[in-house]
Please model this.
Amino acid sequence: MKKFFFSAAVLLIAVASFAQTTISGRILSADDHQPLLNATIAISRSKSGELLTGTISDDQGRFSIANLASGEYDVSISFIGYETAMRRVLAGALNKALDLGKILLNASSVEIGAVDVRAQKQAVSAGMEKKSYSAESIISGSTGSVLDMMKSLPGVTIDQESRVILRGSDKVAILIDGKQSSLTGFGSQKGLENIPASQIESIEIISNPSAKYDAAGMAGIVNIKFKQSKKRGFTGDIGFTPGIGMLTKRKADLPTGMPSYSDNRKLTPSLNLNYKTDKLNLFWQSYWIHQRRLPNNEFSTRLYNDGNMTESQVAENRSQNHYNLKLGLDWNPTPNQTITLFGLYDYEWHIDTTRVWYFGNKNYNAPLRKWSFHESEGTGFTNVTLQHKFRFQQAGHELNSQILFTKGWEDETYNLRQNGPAPYPVISTDKTRVLAPEYVYLFSSDYVRPLPFGRMEAGLQGRMRHMPITYTITKNPQNTALIYNFGDWSRWDENLAGAYMNLIAEFTKIDIEAGLRGEYTSVRYQFAPNLYFKEDKYNYFNLFPNVRVTFKANSNNKISLFYNRRIDRPGEDILRIFPKYDDPELLKIGNPSLRPQYTQNMEMAYKYLWQKGSVYTSFYHKITDAYYTRIYVQDPLHTEITIKAYDNLGKATNTGVEAAFDQKVTKSWNLSASANIYRNTIFAHSGTIKFPVAQTYSVEKRTDTPMYAKLSSQFALPDNFRIEFNGIWFSEKNIGQGKELARGGLDIGLRKAFADNKLELNLSGTDIFNTMGIRQEIESEGFNVEYQNYFETQVISLGIKYKF
Model:
């Protein structure tokens, strides 16, 4: 019980509680710059004069003193026959190492007396630049995926396409252990719903990233840290998580003869092994997911200006298997070098089956059109990474380099069948197949140099991405439901080169971080000749600055000011010209002419800490140029078809207030709450969608003020039993050509530890009342659409894990 309360307190004050600093330097004679062996270094608290620790210099004059808690210290350097040198340092939370550099001692004939030291304990930096959450402290969602776990984090929401939303935007860069990864995408999001939460150590939310990070992600960065064993010898854990989803249905299925999946079974076994010695660390991480799912269950009601109405339901009944294996080693050939080599194999295969029947004017006995598809899709990648870390003699002085090669692939086959009266073919059977491999070559190098007052960071990055795509159509020779001819191949290439420099300075009353990143990008998109799109290529160079200033009034009050500039590049998946036919009357297609969007972020944040809690408040303003989103237009050649394509809409702004509160109410009750209210403005814009023929559209200026809030209560009960409740609520908000209606839900988590914490049981229930479905209302020229997507959000699962 005491361990739990201590962990909760650690979580409340985030980075500050973990602040441990190493101070290093080199002692030289001022006369000849020769190193002084056995010089005495003493660390004392300022003003009080309390001697805390000390050391002596080695034969090169170097010294290092580790594990200094946050505060202000006087460093006294003395050597017989030389004058004593004094240095005052601030050990804070931003820098784990401070390098005092070369300290020159002047010769003196005066005998050295006692050292007079003065001190005043200083505030700890509260980690205003990021928020870090330990996976062990999160109960609800812990038996599911990373996405399930992230639902309970303050300021984080998940949309219907399993994308992370920060402050109302899905333009979030996902990192794995601080680096971009093919597992989660380069400048995009994917795969998070397939990463088990049981393999995660912690999750970091970085709303205002510095120049050391790739410039993508205007909404911020989510850094997911995988577990790494620190114990010597053989360790590991084995787990098994059964579950069931979609226990209830929000809306009755339409009479298609193929109901949507419910009572969906799920099984997730996992095995993690680790063997660690002084020089070698071998690791193995693996899991398998076998489940039935309902990732999409969208009811559509189209209301046309002529008074007609059609209804349909797209229920993707999915059977899925997912395998993941990561294995590798860390080798320390010398005390100052670590070489890491690891490989990652990930493969996911699923089958989606559904019937989409269209009913007109509430007549459910005579469908206007019958459509069905059987999709077989396999996606995966192999990843090989070589990392080298070189540690210089000064503590915290490092050079980290990485070479990565990835081959990913997507193999998607749709078998389509249509049976409907004129003007549709009476019987048509077609097949489409997309084969999309992706090759990524990446090199990066990061240099960190500690300074007496902070650290300097600099680095280089180069990346090449190549995606040759094959698109094959097999048409029924008599009748076909496939209207358009797009060719049978495309090729997309993106090359990026970047460099950055970042400086972090930490003083008694103020912290300053300033950096600049430059990136050059070239893009080329080629495809088979067709009537609708033309090949495109372009290149650009941009600078991305960042500035953060933190004012520290005292140990409990801090105010930070932020500014940075970010970019969001459209990925190949939203540029792809080949349409998806899962709903033949809602044709989803890419836009190869789409351009990046740029965002300026400005923020002021305040954090107040007290003994049993904290409050964090931020005011932010974002200005986005060339903002892109989905646009709905009606196909003028086939009026029953709606086109859903991306386009750049010009300017948009986002201004908001975010607040988070934590309080240890009693010994057994922790309470936390967060809320975000923001004002979105999409300025009036007119544009042209070129497919299937050029047609203009217009979007009026739209402004709304949505809000979302979370309330979490965690209770510690006797016998290592914990329970957590998370309530989530989202207000109505604007989307591109309409609005998304309000919704809310409740998650529950229970955890029980046995056998001296070696055996752990976790019971999680997400959206237990099945109320988190998405409802949207779209207004366009000639028609209105109501979407109700009651996809699977309700999941109950039990996780069993044994540590050895």
